Model the fold of this input.
Amino acid sequence: MLANAMSAPLEGYRVLEVSHALAGPFAGMALGDLGADVIKIEPPGGRTGDVGASAELRGESVYFMSLNRNKRSVVLDLKHPADRARFHALARTADVMLDNTRPGVAARLGFDAKTLRRLNPRVICCSITGYGRTGPFSGRPGFDYHVQALSGAMAITGEPGGKPTKSGLSVIDHMAGYVAAGAVVAALLRRERTGEAADIDLSLLDIQMAITSYLAAHYLQTGEKPRRVANSGHARGVPFQLFRASDGWVMVAAYTDKHFALLCRCLSQPALARDPRFATQAARFRHRRPLLRLLAGLFAAQPCAHWQRKLVAAGLAIEPVRTLDEALRHPQVRARGMVVKAPHPRGGTFRAVGHPFRISGMGAILRPPPSYGQHTEELVGQRAPRLPARP
Done:
């Protein structure tokens, strides 16, 4: 479904994007999903600048298409004076400059804030890097997984006694995209109110440290280090973890006294809720091992569907662990419109996950992912480089 462009919150704002790794393209796509005119500047050579191995669909990279809907694609060699001049002409019309290049690259290629403000005093410049523009690591390359390692996130993920474990998803890169979009919108609002432009310095490490949140606060007050908990359990809430049913795993949360009593009824063990070892949250935390052994034996006796039916009927939170293919087919995911179709640049359709913004009066997809250099002639008046022949 195509959105009504006039209903998109960022309709009329133009974003220039120079990016090469997940966080930058995802940030640009988030702004495009909100209606901004996002122009992605690609390097010459017949290949997108996005870093990521990918399958292809009708000659186009699936990785690229998954990160670049609602954008236009322009090929420019920013090392070449003529192409840099074309880029600067675009910059005069832009509201936002978005990049996730290493510190120093923007100044060398002419898209740093100092250069662009001479051309366009109102432009907002947003930079996403691994470690930020300041500090002893500012010049280092840093990717999502490096930040998970440095920040302590890997050390507390996984089973006790096992290896440090990364998240199965590139959580920080994707979160950086949304943080960047939010920061850009905030800067635009301030500019509308005061006329003042802004420089936004976003660091993957800062974002990861921010979401250590209550774990960091607990350590800072008590000196108690966070630890891994078996079966993906919550460090303080009991029971709040995975249990093995007879045919798979279920994630259960019943850590308040009220919810624990309901869970005990669902398990046909109401007396457990009155046992002094388990009657309160504090008591359950102190006696978590014997409690979890009891619960594990009870959950193992029946399949996932049985427990889901009983606990949902009681108003408790439970979900079976699903694979990605199962999740994409799930009726709730479908009902929320999270699987979308867009026209493929070479014909047919491309399916992907949609955006999570649910804003009244706003539609879904404005533009399909562009092909490499598709809008070069339209926007800078020169033909896009021809792609090399495919074998």
In short: The two ends are 35 Å apart (CA to CA). The domain at 5-210+331-380 is CATH 3.40.50.10540 (Rossmann fold).
